[in-house]
Amino acid sequence: MSIEDLKSLLPGFAKDVKLNLSALPREDSLTPQQLYGLLVACGLTTRNAEVAQALESEAAPHLSPAALDAAKAAASIMAMNNVYYRFTHLAANKAYETLPAKLRMSVIGNPGVEKADFELWSLAVSAMNGCGRCIDAHEAVLREAGLSEAQIQTAVRVAAVIASTAVALEAAGDRLPAAAE
């Protein structure tokens, strides 16, 4: 499955989603690794198997095995961190912020790809998961690494398009082809 296949599954009410999805492969403000890593990490973050599979298939020819694994690692580690740090940020009892997290997250320090690329994927996943503390932390690292506000905004825009694709497919659920049994 590919982006073209995903587009063919989108119903009429998702015309804007389809157009935005069509534009993703033509995005030129990011490196190919940054863009295609975003497709993988954000696709997994939707928790929609069709979206995740289609975007990984689209991205795989453009990513090294290490970059593909790193994009998956970004989605995985941020699934954990976004829950934990969103909780510490939102909890009225601020004592939780002073306790050690005791969560293993060494992949952030050694992701197997350029640190800025991993941080960009982590930022986009954090935006999808709604963790303001993680968004701020990753954005600061990206700015220090020299990424522009436009590049950072592009990553979040890509995440938004991918999230909307999954929602549109779920909303059209009764119109999707039945899975083979």
TrEMBL record:
The active site is at C131 (proton donor), C134 (cysteine sulfenic acid (-soh) intermediate). Keywords: Antioxidant, Disulfide bond, Oxidoreductase, Peroxidase, Redox-active center. GO terms for molecular function: disulfide oxidoreductase activity; hydroperoxide reductase activity; peroxiredoxin activity. Disulfide bonds join C131-C134. SUPFAM superfamilies: AhpD-like. Pfam families: CMD. It comes from the Bacteria. Residues 99-172 form the Carboxymuconolactone decarboxylase-like domain. Signal peptide: none annotated. One of its GO terms (biological process) is response to oxidative stress. The keyword Oxidoreductase applies. Its EC number is 1.11.1.28. Gene3D superfamilies: AhpD-like. It catalyses: N(6)-[(R)-dihydrolipoyl]-L-lysyl-[lipoyl-carrier protein] + a hydroperoxide = N(6)-[(R)-lipoyl]-L-lysyl-[lipoyl-carrier protein] + an alcohol + H2O. Belongs to the AhpD family. Antioxidant protein with alkyl hydroperoxidase activity. Required for the reduction of the AhpC active site cysteine residues and for the regeneration of the AhpC enzyme activity. PANTHER family: ALKYL HYDROPEROXIDE REDUCTASE AHPD. This is Alkyl hydroperoxide reductase AhpD.
